[in-house]
Amino acid sequence: YRVFATGRSERALASLKAEAPGYALDTLPLDVTDPASIEAARRAVDEATGGHGLDALVNNAGYGTAGPAELCTDADLRAQYDVNVFGLMAVTRAFLPAMRERGAGRVVNVSSIGGRMTLPLFGVYNSTKYAIESLTDALRMELRPFGVYFSLIEPGVINTGFADRSMNEVGKYHDDASPYAPVTARAAQMRELADRTGVGPEGIARAIERAI
Hints:
Layout: E1 3-7, H1 10-19, E2 25-29, H2 35-48, E3 56-59, H3 74-102, E4 105-110, H4 123-143, E5 148-153, H5 162-172, H6 181-184, H7 187-196, H8 202-211
Parallel strand pairs: 1-2, 3-4, 4-5
C-alpha cells in the first residue's frame, strides 16, 4: 500500500516518517474539525495520485471525554461531537465522491465497544460511538450500489495515549463537594483495572488492514 498518514502534530508526523524508512508513506497535516485543513488534505492526495484519490479511507481520529454526563459542559459536549462525529463525516464526504464516481472504494470507521454498550463516566463519549455505528450502517446501505463499502472496527481497551487523555478529562470534573466525588476520585483505580485488559495497537491495525 501507499499510505497517507495524517495528524495535527507535525512533530509526530515527522517521527512516524522517520520510523518507516523505505515504505511508501506520505504524511499530511489534517485537523478533522477544520474544513480548510480537510480540503487541503484532499487536494494533496488528488495531486499525489493523479486525481485517483484514495482507495481506502480509515477514520481513526477521536478522543474520549470522561466524567458524569450531568456535569459535562456544552463546550465539552460539542467538542467531543466535533471530533468523533462531525469530523468523521466531514472527512468521509471529502473523499467519498471520487470513490463513488469510479465505482470502487472502502471506508473503515473506527468505533469502539463503547458503541455497543454504555459505561458510567463515558456516556458522552459512548454516545458519539453509537452515532458512528448508525451512520456507518446507513452509509453502508446507501453506497453499496455504487461499489463503495464500509467497515466498522470496535476496539476494546488499547494501550495508546487515549486513556491518558480520558483520565485528564475526569480530573476536570472532580470536586470534593460534588455528589459525584466518590466516583470521580476513583478514576485512577478504574484506569488501572482497564489497563490490565489492554492490548497493543497491532491487533487493531491487523483488523483494519484485513477490512481494507
